[in-house]
Amino acid sequence: MPDIDASKTHLPVLLDETLELLQAAKGGLFIDATLGLGGHTEAILDASPSGSVIAIDQDNEALELAAKRLARFGTRVKLVQGNFSEIASIVASAATEKPSGIMADLGVSSLQLDSETRGFSFRFDAPLDMRMDPDSRGETAADMLATLGQDELANIIYQYGEERQSRRIAKWIIEKRDAGTPIETTIELAELVRRAVPRSPKDKIHPATRTFQALRIAVNRELEILEKFISDSIDLLSPDGVLAIITFHSLEDRIVKHAYQHHAGKCSCPPRIPQCVCGAVKKVEVLTRKPVLPAGNERDENPRSRSAKLRACRKL
Question: Taking CA atoms, which of 14, 44, 135, 172 is between 20 and 30 Å from 149?
Fold first, then answer.
């Protein structure tokens, strides 16, 4: 494992806003469902001497680095390897009280983006892995490109990447696979997408960005597990407890927004249905009618924060 100082390489996004919504200064038990390199957990523990955190991450390398950063807090922090979708069972076995707050930062951590071997970024030539937990037996991005049909692949790139040229990209990937040269590395995929999708002068991002996002989401089933995470978290919270979630693209933000509205009792049934069948029950109060966005100085200091949105709700 590289010698990395987590406190210097990781800038937690929307930190002050998250602490305020969680009311971390009051202390209590908090759950950081996506520990990463530990920036949010560290700030929660610094906010109150009576605060404690159960911090979850599926990446063992991140846990080891965060453990060094958080060692000064001793027993006030408990690190658990797992996926945030397992929050109910993790809290059941690791906590003796209901949490006052739960947070999740859904962005890919600096550790993963800056890795030259994990395949999250096309800045480095690496195998197309993209698993948040590299020790898992789950499919890699390369596995998906080697096995999925053209329509399945196009749908993933379109739905999860919001890429309008998804069918063209999928067609090129399948053609290379059928020719006996499957896409297996980040540079191979980025170059194929660059050639398949002519770049507009107005487009500020690399043409492969949306395809990489789509594959990462699909590999880690990120959107599939998000709604369940929100529902489980609300059930776990103590009365007046707060759930705060930071998202980085519109698909995640839309799921969080609609899930909060559902748990706030907003019916989502079509207007012509005479009786509600969606099961909306008022369990929470939405604290952020509009998402909280990073201030200008944070966007300047931390470019990765520019697309971040924070939404929170309070359990009734």
Answer: 135
